[in-house]
Amino acid sequence: MPKKKADKVLPKLSEAELDLISHIEQGYQLQTDLLGSDPLLRRLKDGEVIRPASATQSTIRALEQRGVIAPAKGREPLTLVWRLTKKLAT
């Protein structure tokens, strides 16, 4: 009998975290400064910028510690772009 893979238990996410994740999945790019503060969402298709009111530096840090997002170097100096590390089933 083949072994079944155990489903990974996803961490319980807050409303602000789920909002950020859903925007990233819809084609937005999460950008912050090098310290993780001043988050903004930029739509890759047309460059539209949204400043999420509910997202803070601690929101970004929590998502990174849970392994949901990971930093990457941004195009602009002193900017981080955050990428999803795994697809969440919301």
What structural keywords apply?
90 residues, alpha+beta, five-stranded antiparallel β-sheet, 2 helices, 5 strands, globular
Explained architecture:
The protein has one domain (15-84). 22% of the residues lie in helices and 26% in strands. The protein has two helices and five strands; from the N terminus they run H-E-E-E-H-E-E. The protein has helices at residues 15-25, 57-65; strands at 28-33, 40-43, 49-50, 69-73, 79-84. A hairpin with a 6-residue loop joins strand 1 and strand 2. It is globular, with a radius of gyration of 14 Å. Mean pLDDT is 83; it is low at 4-9.
Detail the poorly predicted runs. 4-9
- Order of SSEs: HEEEHEE
DSSP summary, beta strand count: 5
Strand content: 25-35%
Distance between the terminal alpha carbons, to the nearest Å? 31 Å
Helix content: 10-25%
Strand order of the largest sheet: 3-2-1-5-4
Largest sheet: 5 strands, antiparallel
Overall pLDDT confidence: 83
Report the radius of gyration as a whole number of Å. Answer: 14 Å
- Helical segment tally? 2
Compact overview of the structure:
The protein has 90 residues and is α+β, with helices and mostly antiparallel strands. The chain is built from two helices and five strands, in the order αβββαββ.
How are the SSEs placed, and which strands pair?
Layout: H1 15-25, E1 28-33, E2 40-43, E3 49-50, H2 57-65, E4 69-73, E5 79-84
